[in-house]
Amino acid sequence: MTARLLDQASAAPVVDPVKRGYRVRRPYLDEPDAPICEAKTAHLAGNGDYPSGHTAAGWLEALILAELLPDRAGAILARGRAYGESRAVCGSHSLSAVQAGYLAGATTYAALHSSPSFRRDVARARAELARLRRHAGAPDPTICAGQAAALAERPW
Question: Please, what are the domains in the chain?
Fold first, then answer.
């Protein structure tokens, strides 16, 4: 249920029309020698900078997961934020595109809550995770500390 909920949640209906409307060039296209963390494909170059679809999707999923696991919301949202920041650090997007991605993800999340079927699926996913957590082992504190330290490093 949880996987299905996340698979069905998409920020594309918010992101795609904005990308088509603004058609902002990705930052690396104006500096061809600048390295980025992914392949410089024609698809990437043709898929505009603003807003960041990866950031929107990551933030949307972080918001959903934070709702499902409120006791872990801080850690989940920190990871969602870092995922968006990585798009600018990586050179694939401008900072404003990442910020717009967060807004697109949050807008999509709010709109999804108007759907009774989404709210019903959230309740089912929450119950599923509660059942799974009863049998899950404790997180490794060393790994958690390492991740927390990495997330504390802010790029700006």
Answer: 2-152 (1.20.144.10)
